[in-house]
Amino acid sequence: MTASKAASHRQGVTAARRCGESEGASSLSGSISDSISGSISASVGRSSARKIAVMSLLALIAAAAYMLVSVNPKFAAYAFKLRAPKLITILITAFAIGGATVVFQTVINNNIVTPCLLGMNALYTMVHTMIVFFFNTGSVAFANRNVSFAVDLVVMSFASMIIYGWLFKKTKYNVLYVLLVGTVLANFFGSMQSTMVRVMDPNEYDALLVTLVASFSKVNADIITFALALMAVVIFALRKELALLNVITLGKEQAINLGVDYDATIRRLLLGVTIFITIATALVGPISFLGLIIANLSRQLFKTYRHAYLIAGSALFGMIALVAGQTVVEHVFVYSVPVSVFVTVGGGVYFLFLLMRRKAV
Amino acid sequence: MGIIKERKITVILAGTLTLLSVFSLFVGVIDLRGGAAAAGGLGRLDVLLISRLPRLLAILCTGVGMSVAGLIMQQLCMNKFVSPTTGATLSSAQLGILLALLFMPRSTLWSRAAFAFASALTGTWLFIWFIQRIKFKDTVMVPLVGMMFGNVIGGVTSLLAYRYEMTQALSTWLVGHFALVIRGRYEIVYLVLPLIVIAFIFANHFNIVGMGKTFSKNLGVNYGVVLFGGLTIAAAITASIVVVVGSVSYIGLIVPNIVSMFKGDKIRGSLIDAALSGAIFVLVCDLIGRVVIAPYELPIELIIGILGSVLFVAILIRRLSHGRKHISLGRVKASRAIGGIQ
Amino acid sequence: MRSDALTKIYDGKTVVDHISFEIPKGKVVSFIGPNGAGKSTVIGMLSRLIARDGGTAEFEGKDVAKWKSGELAKRLAILTQTNNIQMKLTVWELVAFGRFPYSGSHLTERDNQAVRQAIEYMELTDLTDSFIDELSGGQRQRAYIAMVIAQDTEYVLLDEPTNNLDIYHASNMMKIIRRLCDELGKTVILVLHEINYAAFYSDVICAFVDGKIAAFGSVKEVMNPTTLSAIYGVDFEMIEVNGKPLSIYY
To answer: What ranges do the domains of chain C cover?
Structure first.
């Protein structure tokens, strides 16, 4: 078997020689193409690495600015203690959303979609409201932040696994339909939530409302550790599937041709995406469109199919944008407008711009 | 013979609607079924005239109007998933109302309607212009883009609302409800009824334009004018309903799809059925909303949101598992439509 | 490679109806037939892209569904009609994907060599670093074929490889397919619309009508006026060029 393959190789070589004009020309062009392609791919790799380095530096500067702007030296320690968890939360969120969106877009083979379209923000809002509705704001599940985070995470993971797992199966992995159903479900969750709110005690509602707006300030160290650990577990569990992302770029049929177990792979990847988005949402609340912006900026900047760069770039863009944005919101707008509103408007306009440029989706 | 058979569905729908309407008049907080109230017939009649009748008319107009608007938009865009909800019309109308509240704090209902209409029209037109420029590989992308488009407009709306602390005032127009429709508030009837009549008159034109630019040129129909006119009617209907009862989603999306599952895509024939079915749908939702947590009531938008999304998902899944037989997406069977024109 | 009572049903309509055949090794086998006859569906089922509703499809004595996908990828390659990639990929990068079944994402020196040979074989050396979305239709098609060559499989399945190509590029493509068989010893199965290409360049023709096999045999056996008229429902006249039967129809 190996012998036959070697033979076919040799045949291939001789055939290649025969099709060239002369043996000399063919080997010459071969060596030239070799050196060109070698140098090109090396230089692409190098320039990508350089871009990553520059972006990391920018992210660092933004982080430093966030920590240091208008800090009274006397209370520096206190300010740091206050700001550090927020900063880390922002970084985690950016990584979770950025990475999940790149993976999601590749799996769906469409660069203008975001996992937000699945309706997970609305699901979060509904789950959160449900907890208040069935227990109440005084219960441990709501009042204790750690417990509340864990409950959100568990309920949402289960709900999304059941709902989206069922959807993927029902639509036979036709992701466009999953998206369409997702947007409709978002509406459904929204209506359910409003219905519950209508019947709810107004005081309870006030307490609930605060937790429903995206914000980076409601997180403590326990939650951060837990979220990080969970993300590490997911990445470890999906390491094989993540390595297949480059091939999945080629589309379903080519991926199967090259030996990828397509359906199982995308099922696991999408599950990972769901968990990542769940983590980000449970951490900071609903934040839409961010993923769309940063994933596309990353794709534009790196212009490669290598997902290591794309994901890193997307996460870094997210970190820079969110940290800088949060600094501006805190110090320039003095919290008058939530970041999420900025992200929705900015992201939406960017999305339309992307559509106009592409002209085919 | 054939005509009666063909109209059978329509007759059944009309009958159901009449029964439901009468039933709806007598369901409510105050018992109208007679006997119980000592005050006698006069008070009961008052309740009927003051609250129940205007409400019923508003419900009927909403149901008819939204489904007609949806049907027109679907025909013109050649896509079964386009509707006021998925075509940015609804969200633009909301933005229009917010702008009216901002710039003319003491605006009357009519000027708000004008604002909402202008804005809904602009939004719808932008959206149509947009999707006509882009080549869609899959028809499902169109409503997705529409919903994102709507999200952007909604984002602008909430940004403005935040800035000027109008979030609360806005919420009235974000959730449609009939609770405030009482005697004297027949505006919705004045607004919607003429538009529906116009829609019926030009139904065949919409059908032709739905077949495409060259097709309509061949038949001597001015594509641009009819497209513009049709969208204007759809936007005007949507805007009027948003101004009076608030936004009511999904009817325009679901009702025409269900009707075409039974009747095919010829607009003239299905327009009446869509209108009747839309009215029945809203009426049923309204009854549910009034009964579930009586003596209070749930806004109609919530009931429609829940029922509508479940129905819509059911339609989608059905379409997927039965292929294109039941809902032919975006394509009208040429032979059938030509037959209708002659 | 053989199939037995292979069946596919879409929406209650039987698209492929109990098809049984055996593909001879080391030959060019063309699937012909009118639109909707089930040719592409058969190719899809043979290559595990499409799940079947009945029957068997065996490859090397083992059910295609039972093969490990990664192993099968080293023995059998499939190229379908629709290949739209959203990513910026160069020809080299695309062809290098052909080595994925062997080495994953880390290419060895041997892989690089195979990629280079495949590119040379398809005469794409000058375009090695061009982005595939900037190529002409014919060049892009050749790049995909180069990827299949780099995949180095004994069997190659192609779904309408001449689609969207002009006469020059289409006949070139057919010559390449012939060479894949003659020079590299591969078995090539392809779907074709142009029956004269099938007649001129293939060894075996399998004609489909309404999801059933209407004719299966050597070119000479299938290419006669009676058989072709029965398949396509139009009249045919035959001429002979270079000892091969060609059809004229109008």
So the answer is: 2-82+154-249
Q: Kindly give the interhelix angle for C109-121 and A2-19, rounded to the nearest 10 degrees.
A: 40
Distances (CA, A) of C160 to A96, B193, C191, C208: 42, 55, 5, 15
With beta carbons under 8 A apart, name residues in chain C contacting B322: 11
Q: Does B135 touch chain C (CB under 8 A)?
A: no
What pTM, to 2 d.p., does this model score?
0.77
Degrees to nearest 5, angle at CA C138 with C135 and C139: 45
E-strand ranges in chain B read: none
Angle between helices B251-263 and B267-292 (to 10 degrees): 130
Residues 6+ apart with CB under 8 A from A232: none
pLDDT tens digits for range A46-76: 788 899 999 999 999 998 888 888 777 788 7
For residue C10, what is the enclosing H or E element? strand C2-10
Superfamily of domain C2-82+154-249, CATH level 4: P-loop containing nucleotide triphosphate hydrolases (3.40.50.300)
Could you identify the residue written with the tokens 């009586």? Answer: B294
**Other CB atoms within 10 Å distance of the CB of residue B122:** 15
Instruction: State the average pLDDT over residues C168-186.
Output: 91
CB A225: neighbour CB atoms within 10 A?
A: 11
* Contact by Cβ (8 Å): C144, C79: yes
Residues of A in contact with B130 (CB under 8 A): 352, 355-356
* pLDDT of B169 higher than 70: no
Query: A48-113+217-361 maps to which CATH number?
Result: 1.10.3470.10
Q: What are the boundaries of each domain within chain A?
A: 48-113+217-361, 115-212
Instruction: Give B324 to chain C, closest Cα distance, Å.
Output: 9
Find the length of chain B.
342
A324 confidence band (pLDDT: 50, 70, 90): confident
Distance CA A119, CA A127 (A): 12
CA-based torsion, A61, A63, A64, A68: positive or negative:
positive
* CATH fold label, B2-30+41-341: ABC transporter involved in vitamin B12 uptake, BtuC (1.10.3470)
Contacts of C69 in chain A (CB under 8 A): 256, 259-261
